[in-house]
Amino acid sequence: MLTVRVETLTDPADERLADYVALTDVALRSRHEPERGLYIAESSTVLGRALAAGHRPRSVLLAPRWLADVETMLAAAPAAGEVPVYVAEEPVLEAITGFHVHRGALAAMHRSPLPPVAEVLSGARRVAVLEDVVDHTNVGAAFRSAAALGVDAVLVTPRCADPLYRRSVRVSMGTVFQVPWTRIDPWPAGVGVLRDAGFVVAALALSDDATTLDQLVADPPGRLALVLGAEGDGLKRATVAAADLVVRIPMAGGVDSLNVAAAAAVAFWATRPAR
Questions:
Q1: Which of 110, 139, 174, 223 could lock onto 46 through a cystine, CB 3.0 to 4.6 A?
Q2: Which tens digit of pLDDT belongs to each residue from 95-126?
Q3: Cβ atoms < 10 Å from Cβ of 46
């Protein structure tokens, strides 16, 4: 059970708010959060999912009208300890963060160490690999689709955007806490790790000799790893060459490809286990 220490703040420069300052600076936050071992959960919905997954808050920052709901949520959390809850009016919140706070609540959360790849793959039948997807919105959307469509785990390559960056978490609606994930490094050498674990590695890419998604679904492997590439450039040639097969989504209307988040949703839905 978490106990709450409520503190009302009026000064955006208060040193207790250092975790929340200038959250709009992507370059700063992507460096700062891993080093400090924290990430930001935005909105009460996301906070609730983080708490349910056993994550522990360093502090919470919110508008007065959200205090009662968040106190109840913290009291029901499986983690233990005392949490400072900083209460400030909306204009003060915006002055601190640089943006309108979605649903009036933010939390600075402790990061847990990432699990080893073998642990994440254990028992999984269908996994997704996000290769160098640098857009936080696309990462969050891919995680939301993975959670909704029953993907067992997600692996992200070293250059992929941080799934726990504030925007990724918010776009995922907190489902990033539901799907087991970790970084696979090195890559694309990690294709061999997946193969050794019994996965058929399918690279989603444009290729004249590619198998269609329909053909893959007609005879699905027992364990499948779907590899999706970065916006614009797609998968690396070395990744495509290392994969067991290349898969394309059939297109119409003169369109050659989909946004990576849309492609992920289509591939996850098509390969979902039979009910």
A1: 174
A2: 877 766 656 688 999 888 899 999 999 999 99
A3: 26
